Amino acid sequence: MLTRIDHIGIACFDLDKTVEFYRSTYGFEVFHTEVNEEQGVREAMLKINETSDGGASYLQLLEPTREDSTVAKWLAKNGEGVHHIAFGTADVDGDAAAIKDKGVRVLYEEPRRGSMGSRITFLHPKDCHGVLTELVTSAPVEPSEH
Ligand code: CMX
Ligand code: CO
């Protein structure tokens, strides 16, 4: 069951400048940063609120680390902006299988590693009315250095 908005993924050209915009404009602080080489991104997670299921909701600011990454390709075509939405679930495997059975393309055979040790998969935007949709099961971990 999808129980929350885990994050909104926002693609940007310059992560440090974008982090500074969210800090100085809204007062959102960086909760966690990491590089995910498999996804080809350097990212910052800004925690917006905690939720009643023990999870949280974040903004995920994404800067590409290489030209051939999905985010670099998307930025070249669209410029900066909202790239995807992610729903949180306690069971990404079960929810992905159930959604696949409804005829929506699930992009990964098995969930892959996402932010902060989470397990993630994606649904094809063309099957979701134009919205690239991620499913996330969080890992119960402490924030890392940033
Ligand atoms: N939102 C909505 N539509 C999108 C999209 C997005 N983010 N990215 C691509 N599309 C659309 C394109 O506009 C295009 O539509 P048209 O044919 O009408 O022009 C179509 O999908 C195909 O796009 P493409 O540019 O040819 O891109 P690809 O098919 O190579 O890749 C996708 C699209 C969804 C398969 C790829 O982006 C993907 O695998 N995404 C999942 C991984 C990811 O996004 N990782 C980065 C974030 C990591 C994280 O959140 O942790
Ligand atoms: Co994401």
From TrEMBL:
This is Methylmalonyl-CoA epimerase. GO terms for molecular function: methylmalonyl-CoA epimerase activity. Keywords: Isomerase, Metal-binding. Its EC number is 5.1.99.1. Residues 4-138 form the VOC domain. InterPro entries: Glyas_Bleomycin-R_OHBP_Dase, MeMalonyl-CoA_epimerase, MMCE/EMCE_epimerase, VOC_core. CDD domains: MMCE (cd07249). Signal peptide: none annotated. Belongs to the methylmalonyl-CoA epimerase family. It comes from the Bacteria. PROSITE patterns: VOC (PS51819).
